[in-house]
Every structure is written in structure tokens, then in C-alpha cells.
Design a protein that fits this description.
Elements lengths: L15 E2 L11 E2 L2 E5 L3 E5 L8 E6 L3 E7 L4 E6 L5 E5 L3 E2 L7 E3 L3 E4 L11 E4 L3 E2 L1 E4 L3 E4 L4 E3 L3 E3 L7 H7 L10 E2 L2 E2 L1 H11 L8 H7 L2 E3 L9 E4 L2 E7 L2 E6 L4 E6 H10 L4 E6 L1
Parallel strand pairs: 1-2
Antiparallel strand pairs: 3-6, 3-9, 4-5, 6-7, 7-8, 10-13, 10-17, 11-12, 14-15, 15-16, 18-19, 20-25, 21-22, 21-25, 22-23, 23-24
Helix pairs in contact: 1-2
């Protein structure tokens, strides 16, 4: 049988997606149930335990095909947006609602219970979270709960940011978090994915997936804004020919850094640039 990547294909020895029958071995094959992320952020872990490594995060409004919910409250499933497979708290999921109409277009926003920013907010949503807006006023966008989001903080789902690098720059100084995808914590490939998704471009989750799937090969000498620079297990975005922006564990945040300094520092740690890709 063809070896499939378990990070993007839902199969285990005991259970697998029915569509993989004949491609993988499993004790049972099931169709799965489509659910929706109802929490602002849902951690996706490698194993069904809160202390397990954080692989990625799902954001409010994302759809998840769930193949199993354990007695301990862990849902095992596959994210619709990027195909990632992992374990989420079942409490973070609910029935599928209306298709989202808008997405959060700033690093973070609040939903207020009325048209007054002095009211205690009901929810805080990260960039990329999606919501169903049913009405707009001069200042606010309202969802079905009549929670009021600042109109300038949301954008129609179809709207594309013209410069994904500018999106990444909005997350400057966000703390580094392995597996993170928000201004509360983000990793290198998460920064690339969130930024490209805001620009309407498909992007896989992990660095090795991005290096394989995105762009055409270039060299460091040809570097220009929007190019991606890859190392084994790391990726940065070129702001221009001399500057990178990346989330990294050296600075423990999203920083801008001269290309030569980043390349030299990472090489000293034993890691050379593996490729430069132009989108």
C-alpha cells in the first residue's frame, strides 16, 4: 500500500476515514461527521492529552470532519481548511451553522453585546477566524447573537489582501509558540499560512509541506519581497532583498531581521538554507 502522511490523512490502526479504504490498514472505516469550531481557538494536538505536543490550531468557524469522539472528550478529525489531522477538545466543536460570510482581518478583535465599545466583550477572535454576519451598521457588523464587531476589523470572506507580507508585518512581535496560529502565539509556518490565507492563497500547514508545495526555486541573490526562505524545519518571509520577517525560537517572537544575520546565525546552529521559493 502507498505510504500516506498521517498528518494529512486520517488513519490509525484502529480507525480510518472510509475514503482511505484500500489504501491503509485499519480495524474499521467510518464516514465521519462534519462539525464546526465554536471556540475562538481550538488547539490541535498530536495525542489525546492536554500535555501532548501542539501541532496546530483551528480557528472559530473552521469545519472539521470528526471520525471519533472519545469518552474522555477528545475529537479526532481532519480540518477542512488545510487537511491537518489531530485531536481537539470536543467542547470546542458544535453543529455546523450557516456558512461564514466574513473573516477577522486584524490581529485580534472583540465582539461586544451591543453598539458600545465600553461594554464587556463577549468574545475575542484572532485574525482568520470566520463569522456569519447578518447585519451591518455604520460602525459595527452583527452576527446572529447580535454581538457587535468593529466594522473595520472584519472583511468579506471573498476579500483578498493584496500583499501577504503586509499581513505578516501586522503580527510583528507576536510571541513564538510551536503550533500557534494567532497573535497570542505563532510559529514560523503558521505565520506563512495565516498571511497567505488572508491573501486568498492556499497554503499547507507545516514547513516541509510548504517547501514542497509553494512557489518556484530562486536564489538568495535574487531575493525580493514575498519570497520564502526555507531551512530544515524553518521558514521566513522576505520583506525585501535585505530583510526577513519570521517567527523564531531564538527571539521567541515574530521579528524583522537582516537576511545575512539570520542566515549566518542559523548556519552556526548547523542549519543551511535549503531553498528559496517565489510565489
Amino acid at each position: 500500500m502507498t505510504a500516506l502522511d498521517p498528518r494529512t490523512n486520517p488513519f490509525r490502526r484502529d480507525i480510518a476515514a472510509r475514503r482511505l479504504q484500500g489504501q491503509v490498514e485499519a480495524a474499521q472505516f467510518v464516514d465521519g461527521t462534519l462539525l464546526e469550531v465554536i471556540e475562538p481557538i481550538a488547539d490541535v494536538r498530536r495525542e489525546p492529552a492536554h500535555e501532548a505536543p501542539l501541532d496546530t490550531q483551528a480557528l472559530k468557524g473552521e469545519r472539521v470532519t470528526v471520525y471519533e469522539i472519545s469518552d474522555e472528550g477528545w475529537a479526532w478529525g481532519q480540518l477542512e481548511a488545510d487537511g491537518y489531522v489531530g485531536y481537539l477538545s470536543a467542547n470546542a466543536l458544535g453543529p455546523v451553522g450557516p456558512l461564514p460570510t466574513h473573516k477577522v482581518s486584524v490581529p485580534r478583535t472583540f465582539g461586544f453585546p451591543g453598539p458600545d465599545i465600553k461594554l464587556p466583550p463577549m468574545i475575542a477572535l484572532p485574525m482568520g477566524a470566520t463569522i456569519d454576519i447578518v447585519r451591518e451598521t455604520e460602525r459595527f457588523a452583527l452576527d446572529a447573537f447580535s454581538w457587535h464587531y468593529p466594522l473595520t476589523h472584519v472583511a468579506a470572506l471573498a476579500k483578498r489582501q493584496p500583499d501577504f507580507v503586509a499581513v505578516a508585518e501586522m503580527l510583528l512581535n507576536a510571541p513564538y509558540l510551536w503550533g500557534g496560529k494567532t497573535s497570542l502565539g505563532i510559529d514560523c509556518s503558521g505565520l506563512v499560512q495565516v498571511s497567505l490565507h488572508a491573501a486568498g492563497r492556499a497554503c499547507p500547514r507545516d514547513t516541509y509541506m510548504q517547501e514542497r508545495a509553494l512557489g518556484q526555486p530562486k536564489t538568495l541573490n535574487e531575493l525580493r519581497r514575498g519570497d520564502l526562505v526555507f531551512w530544515k524545519g524553518h521558514v521566513a518571509i522576505a520583506c525585501d532583498a535585505a530583510t526577513l520577517i519570521h517567527a523564531n525560537a531564538h527571539h521567541m517572537m515574530v521579528v524583522k531581521e537582516p537576511v545575512n544575520e539570520a542566515v549566518t546565525r542559523i548556519k552556526r546552529a548547523g542549519n543551511d538554507v535549503t531553498s528559496v521559493k517565489r510565489l
